[in-house]
Amino acid sequence: MRVVVCILLLVMFFGSTAFIIEKPIVGEKVCIEINGINLDFVLLNKTGYDISSIYVAPTTEKSWGEDIMGKELLENGESVEIVFDANETVKKWDMYVTWVGYEADEDVHWIGFDLSVINEITLFYDASTGKTWAESK
């Protein structure tokens, strides 16, 4: 969501203010653009295994693109912050994770994370059931 806030300067402020407008003119219209969607999130690895790569793509895409982890390895117990371009507007994203030392048939993916309302995703694995899952908040 792209939001543009415009104000009409009716009064000249002196002293400290929350923001500075260089040489404001009374009666001048000032507009500030605000990007209303923050898609950034922290990914926590609580699986008991090390992650070798993380891919995210809009749910509507057919390919994963490049590994976005930002480092070589995400060890068990570690976290990484995933940061998006401030101009990105797609809300629903899929995630694909690969593991150190495991074959592609053991990779996992999730579909449809609404990153506009999520700021943390934690991955878990239960060895007794073989189930990998994600919890978000």
Can you walk me through this structure?
This protein has 137 residues and is mostly beta strands. It folds into 2 domains: 34 residues, no CATH class; 96 residues, Domain of unknown function DUF5300 (Immunoglobulin-like). Helices cover 0% and strands 44% of the residues. A 4-stranded mixed sheet has the order 5-3-8-9, with no helix packed on it. Strands 4-6-7 form a 3-stranded antiparallel sheet, with no helix packed on it. The radius of gyration is 21 Å and the shape is elongated. About 9% of the residues have low confidence.
Helix and strand layout, with pairings?
Layout: E1 2-8, E2 29-35, E3 41-46, E4 51-58, E5 79-82, E6 92-99, E7 108-114, E8 120-126, E9 131-136
Parallel strand pairs: 3-8
Antiparallel strand pairs: 1-2, 3-5, 4-6, 6-7, 8-9
Q: Give, in order, the helices and strands.
A: EEEEEEEEE
Instruction: Indicate the low-confidence ranges by residue numbers.
Output: 10-22
In terms of DSSP E residues, the strand content is 35-45%
**Count of alpha and pi helical runs:** 0
Structural class by helix and strand composition: mainly beta
Strand count, sense and barrel status of the largest sheet are:
4 strands, mixed
**Name of the level-1 CATH class of the largest domain:** Mainly Beta
Annotated CATH topology of the largest domain: Immunoglobulin-like
Shape: elongated
What is the CA-CA span between the terminal residues? 21 Å
The helicity comes to under 10%
Mean of residue pLDDT values: 82
Second rung of CATH, namely the architecture of the largest domain = Sandwich
Strand order of the main beta sheet, please?
A: 5-3-8-9
Q: How many E-type strands? A: 9
Q: What gyration radius follows from the Cα positions, in whole Å?
A: 21 Å
Q: Give the CATH superfamily of the largest domain.
A: Domain of unknown function DUF5300
